[in-house]
Design a protein that fits this description.
Layout (H helix, E strand, L loop, with lengths): L4 H20 L4 E2 L8 E6 L3 H4 L7 H4 L2 H13 L4 E6 L26 H4 L4 E6 L8 H9 L5 E7 L1 H18 L5 E5 L3 E2 L8 H14 L3 E3 L2 E2 L1
Helix pairs in contact: 1-8, 7-8
Protein name: Cysteine hydrolase
Keywords: Hydrolase
Organism: Turicibacter bilis
Length: 223
């Protein structure tokens, strides 16, 4: 089967218009409206190798540092648990068959950016694939925080690591028949531009896929 580009663009226009409207009208959310005893902040891959240096870094992702820093500062004051995933690969990682070598163990690329490291207050979990949910250390963290059922997820990349993590997390709680609230603020997630991978379009489609799978998309988290 071959796609007719003109027909596809025409048939998709109305849907894309509605999707953009859904995202543009997303509400903001006050952090203080969330119960501290069951809420956590998850920071995905805000490492130098995606933000500041190396073949996978993007200036687009630098733009979300201030919003994430502010959220972490407020969460730390409210004593909310925070967990930060950091992409970290050995030289033989099979992920390098898909992506160029990046975030090697022990290099500066695998380190959390200084702006967020300065805030601190998070538990660090190294991850060797695009989906941090699969890391045993994350499951240990879940067991150590049995009351947590609300998650604010920020970081990069919206359409890869963030999307995979939130959808798997949501499915996990559904499998257990447990309620969960997973929140993604638009101003605190980002992806990259590279060739056919147009960042704005990829962001929109990833956020909509999360929305249609029960993830709560908000404009921003305010104090």
């Amino acid at each position: 089967m071959k796609y007719d580009l003109k027909a596809l663009l025409k048939s998709s226009e109305a849907s894309l218009t509605q999707i953009v409207d859904i995202l543009n009208t997303a509400p903001s959310l006050m952090l203080q409206s969330l119960e501290a005893s069951n809420t956590a902040i998850i920071i995905v891959d805000m490492v130098n190798g995606f933000v500041k240096e190396g073949p996978m870094s993007s200036p687009r992702i630098q733009t979300i540092i201030p919003a994430i820093r502010e959220l972490m500062t407020q969460a730390k004051e409210k004593k909310l648990p925070m967990l930060a995933f950091a992409d970290s690969h050995n030289e033989s990682s099979i992920e390098f068959a898909t992506y160029p070598p990046h975030c090697l163990v022990g290099t500066s690329e695998s380190k959390i950016v200084d702006e967020l490291k300065e805030v601190g207050g998070y538990e660090l979990v190294l991850k060797g694939s695009t989906n941090g949910f699969l890391e045993p250390a994350f499951h240990n963290w879940l067991k150590e925080h049995p009351t947590i059922e609300q998650f604010i997820v920020v970081g990069d990349c919206t359409d890869i690591c963030v999307e995979q993590f939130v959808l798997t997390l949501k499915t996990y709680f559904t499998t257990l028949n447990r309620p969960s609230r997973i929140i993604v603020p638009i101003n605190s997630v980002e992806t990259y531009d590279l060739g056919v991978h147009a960042g704005d379009f990829m962001n929109v489609m990833a956020l909509y896929k999360m929305h249609m799978n029960g993830i709560e998309i908000v404009r921003e988290i305010t104090n």
